[in-house]
Amino acid sequence: MLSEAERRSLQEIEQRLLADEPRLARTMNRQVRPWLFYALLIVFGGLAVLLTVIGAFGPAFQCLLVTASVLVLRRYPLRLR
Question: Is the pLDDT of residue 3 over 60?
Fold first, then answer.
């Protein structure tokens, strides 16, 4: 948790960045589109079910891992610094 002085300092830095480099600031604030997550869930979740039904358990497990990873990354996004 940031103190009030640190929060003000951070806000000032963000405002200067936005004034000096607006494209960089917009790029850093850009969120991944929600449709991408839903598309990955539908495709890999559906593939996991289909592959399980036809008996291909190895690839089904891999699709299930991708689906679970998408759900985890949706809840806890990566913060690259």
Answer: yes
Burial class (CB in 10 A: 0-12, 13-18, 19+), 40: middle
pTM, rounded to two decimals:
0.54
Determine how many CB atoms are found less than 10 A away from the CB of residue 49.
13
Q: What CA–CA distances, in Å, run from 58 to 18, 55, 74, 80?
A: 48, 9, 25, 32
* Tokens representing residue 63 in the block: 């699709």
* Token duo for residue 17: 């960045």
- Is the distance from CB of 29 to CB of 22 less than 8 angstroms? no
Judge whether 31 and 9 are in contact, CB under 8 Å: no
Helices 34-54, 57-75: inter-axial angle, 10-degree rounding? 160
At residue 41's C-alpha, the angle toward residues 50 and 35, to 5°, is 140
